Every structure is written in C-alpha cells, then in structure tokens.
Amino acid sequence: MNAIECEHLTRLFGRFPAVNDLNLTVPTGSIFALLGANGAGKTTTLKLILNLLHPTSGDVRVLGCGSTKMGKEAFLRIGYVAEDQVLHDWMTLDQMLDYYRPFYPRWDRDLERRLRTMFDLPPNRSLKKLSRGMRMKGAFLSILPFRPELLVLDEPFSGLDPQVRDEFIEGLLEIGDTDRPSTVVVSSHDITEVERLADWVGILAEGRLVTAEPMPALQGRFRRIEVVGPGAGTRIPREPGPAWRQVEAAAPNVVHFVHDRFAGEPTEREIQAAFPGTSVKASPMTLREIFLAHIRRAPPTGAH
Amino acid sequence: MYQYAWYTVLPFNVTFLPGEPVYEQVIYAVKKAILSGNLEPNARFPSVRSLSQELKISPNTAHKVVMALTVEGFLAVNPGIGTLVARPPAGSAGDRTALLNGDVERLVFEARQLGLGEDQVLAAVRRHWRKISFPS
Asked: Which residues pair with A13 in a beta bridge?
C-alpha cells in the first residue's frame, strides 16, 4: 500500500515547470525525506499532494483518494506544517488547542498532554509573542494529537535549535502505532537531521525526481573510492566506468571518485582491474555527500 | 564529522556514524553488547516503539533491527512477555571476530597509506594490547 502516488505530475508557473513529469510513490508507514536544492520543486510538490495547488497535468492519489477530490474527511487524516506556518496569532496556545480539538474525532488528549509537557510552551501568552521555535512547536502541537495517518512537513527544522529539533522528532515518532502506522513526508535542507530518521529518500532536481529509494539501498550503492598507487603514475583510465562520478586525480598516485552502483567485492575487483597494482578503498558516504553527488551530475530522469 | 550519541536509557550504546545504514549500526551495537556480556540472556529488550523513540529512528528501521536479531538468534520474542535477550548463538568466537572486521580493515588501509609494513602494524597493536588491562 502506498500513502502517496504521483503519476506524471506536472505544474507550470507560466511556462516554467516547477514540477516536471514527476512519478513518486511514498509507501505507507515510511518516513520519507524529500531532498532538493532551493527551487528544486519540493514545496510545489508537497502543495500538489495536499491539493493546495492544482496540477497542470498528471495525477496524485493520497491515502487512496484523488488529490483534487480531497475534502474535509481527507484532511482530518492529514497533518501539515508549512515552512512559515501561519498561526491564529491572536489566540493563546490553550485557545488554539480548544479551537482545533473539536474538528478531530480522533484527538488524543493524553498525547496532547504528553507533548505539552515535552514542548514546554506557555499556555496563556498570545502566539504572536512567542519565538519562532515556540511557534513551530505550537504548530506541531496542533497536528500531532489527532495522530494523522499522513504528516507532511515542509522544512520543519530550518532555523530551529538542536533541542527543539530533537523534540520535534520525538513528537512525530509518538504518533504512529503498530496497527495504524503513520506516514511522514518531510522536506528538508538539514540533511544530517533526516539521515538517521528517514527510511526512504527522494531527491528532486529542477522539478524532476532524480531518485527515490529506501535509505539503506541508497547508502549501500554509493561509495567514495580511493585508489592509491605504490608510486606516482596512478592514471585515470581513458574510459571511466559508467557508474563512476566526479573522477579526479587527487595526487600523482591517488585517484578519487564516487561509485553509484557499488555491490561489494565484485565491484572492488572491477576497480582493481582498472587500476592494476594499486590498493582500493571503498568508504560509505553520508547522505549529504550522496545528495551532492546526485545534484552535481545533471541529467535527471523522470523515471525511478 | 563523527556524531557521537550515547543512550543511557537503552541497555546498549550506539555511536552513530553518518553514512552507514542505521539498522546495521544498531544491530552491530546490540550484538556487541550481547557478545561482550553487557546484555545478559533473559534481559528485557526494548520494544520497537522505544527503540524508535530513544534512537530517533523510524519505526520501520527499529522493526527491522528486532526482526534481524531475532532471526539470527540474538533475541527471542515471547508472546505476553516481550522481547528478551537470547543466549548468544553458538560459534560466537567467529561472530566476535566479525564484529571487528570494519575496524581492522580501516586500520590496515590507513597503515598502508602511511607506508607501514605488516610487522610495524602488528608491533603497534601488541604495544597497545599490553597497555590496556581488561577484566576477562
């Protein structure tokens, strides 16, 4: 089962394709990190998913329902926090929660109380007088207690201090339970923040999906390769392998590159064969490094 | 570059290194705790939910960790009681060695990069071995 399915999703602003023939699937129960540079189409994609924008062409299905047909019922199952979430600023936190609670039959007072203790927010000060971090906590507090089946977070961590980020992550890990897993889609610049949390990763570049796959699969196939020769003269072969990226001679006896289809010893033997008499070291790469390797090499494909 | 994170609530320590699959790192940490005797047979093992929350990893990943350790015989799921630490599977000397493979590989590679010979590396290992006393 998939929580979200986008098919050939395209959205033009004028002639500019902000999202371009996107095929994206988010499995139910996953924590899906949507990564991309500024202007890659993350926010537009999330807004199309939530029916806050209409697609120019293509389809989105969310929790089994066509996105353009989503109504009140669907939104009772979805939680959304935008990057600059607008709150009812004249209200206090208590007033805001009193206001939201009746909309959601599944609102969990117990979870609300636990989150309030954890987030430690002043209950009786108007929201506009709170700091940015506190306001984001307020926004979180208004969507987590109804245990949404789908949680969409657009840059939730930006500009927040590490302790608040930790509390956010703890909060969102609270909402799922075994018989009804929650799906979380989180777009983020803070790649290290989502590296541990997410189990799926999608990378967008120029409105297109460059890749979408389980985190361990992505981490498994990317390696930084270091070839060290016994003396000067370790040369880059005339025809580098098809899975080699960013090949560079780091020193007269050292060649570095990124391998994007690494499969353990067979791959190491292949590389060894291309550089006879050298020692080859393959090191895992951080999600941040993998992300940069993806967006540096341009030709993105619509398929995945 | 390395992010150290120690968890006192859980009965084992995980040092998360970026770049390596999270579930492999957790599995490694649990095996190390069991094989070294820090986690004793029949000790209660945290639920998927508390693993996920304490380590800030997705519930899917936490579930995978428990499944893999159960299949390998390190944990036993007892209906009604919860997940308990099992007696380490037989042949654990090999497992214990396997736990060091990554570290040994790193050491060997770096030694070769520095142009050290096998004897020099072994001598250095012996020197440090004697320096550290360890309850057996």
From this structure: A16
